[in-house]
UniProtKB/TrEMBL annotation:
Ketoreductase domain span: 6-180
Family: Belongs to the short-chain dehydrogenases/reductases (SDR) family.
Domain of life: Bacteria
InterPro entries (alphabetical): KR_dom (IPR057326), NAD(P)-bd_dom_sf (IPR036291), Sc_DH/Rdtase_CS (IPR020904), SDR_fam (IPR002347)
GO CC terms of this entry: membrane
Species in which this protein is naturally found: Cystobacter fuscus (strain ATCC 25194 / DSM 2262 / NBRC 100088 / M29)
Record's protein name: DltE
GO molecular function, one term: oxidoreductase activity
């Protein structure tokens, strides 16, 4: 895809991978709108990038997704790219599960929101030149890390949804793209939990290069291996990743 001259909505775009993508779209000459729950994070991102548009929105809530979609279509009628990036990751033991509300939030943010926002915005995107929809999944969609069971299940489901959406829209101009990150050094799951991941800029630069080349499913590092792996290789990866209980 051409990174220039787009109008792009990125959920969860005030930090981490979403912000790194926002910066690259901005630099290439696109208009970018980001949303998130924390107003201070949005303000911080806007201070660093004055051209950035921001909107407070909790994508876990259906009514806020509807309001976001309707606001963005009227304020930015040229919107031609949606990036479903917002996500959370929780570590939990299913035998201890007591906080269903927190689990439901994780399902709503990581899975319900991208499906609902796609449904709300695809008809609009289809009327625009060079439309694209990007879903951010994970290498863990292919082989789960058992201590983040709900997270991994949402990412596997979002991978599946992305395949179906791409198939349904194959006869249209809308490009349905999946970004499959490995562990990347961001605040995912809370500050300090992902410091072992690959550097954010290295990851984002590699992804953007492949977006420019027109690829539709883009992994990096271990996630690139996972998305191309055979079932035997995934079983082996699962054992290796989960060997410590
Ligand atoms: N980092 C990794 O290792 C890794 C690996 C694979 C996949 N990913 C995926 O990459 C995406 C971005 O994560 P990240 O690593 O960049 O982590 P991050 O820095 O924590 O970013 C997540 C963003 O999502 C936003 N968000 C969370 N819940 C939201 C909600 N209910 N409504 C609106 N925005 C919400 C957060 O902002 P607020 O808290 O202000 O709402 C934050 O800006 C996620 O989908 C994640 O699953 C990350």
């Amino acid at each position: 895809m051409d990174m220039a001259s787009n109008t792009v909505l990125i959920t969860g775009g005030a930090s981490g991978i979403g912000l790194a993508l926002a910066e690259r779209f901005l630099r290439a000459g696109s208009e970018v709108i980001v949303c998130g729950r924390r107003e201070d994070k949005l303000r911080e991102a806007q201070r660093a990038h004055p051209a950035l548009h921001t909107r407070v929105c909790d994508v876990a809530k259906a009514e806020e997704r509807v309001a976001l979609a309707s606001w963005v279509k009227s304020a930015f009628p040229r919107l031609n790219v949606l990036v479903n990036n917002a996500g959370i990751q929780r570590r939990l033991k299913l035998s201890d599960i007591e906080d269903w509300e927190a689990s439901q939030q994780e399902l709503a943010i990581n899975l319900e929101a991208p499906i609902h926002l796609s449904a709300l915005l695809v008809p609009h995107l289809l009327q625009q030149p060079r439309p694209a929809l990007l879903n951010v999944t994970s290498g863990l969609a292919f082989a789960p890390l058992a201590f983040t069971p709900i997270y991994c299940a949402t990412k596997a489901a979002l991978h599946s949804f992305t395949l179906s959406l791409r198939h349904q829209l194959a006869d249209t101009a809308l490009q349905v793209i999946e970004i499959v990150p490995p562990a990347v050094n961001t605040d995912l799951g809370g500050p300090g939990l992902h410091t072992f991941g690959v550097p954010l800029d290295e990851f984002a630069d590699a992804i953007v290069e492949r977006l420019r080349q027109g690829e539709r499913e883009i992994g990096y590092g271990t996630a690139e291996k996972a998305r191309r792996a055979s079932r035997d290789e995934l079983d082996e990866a699962f054992q290796r990743m989960n060997s410590r209980r």
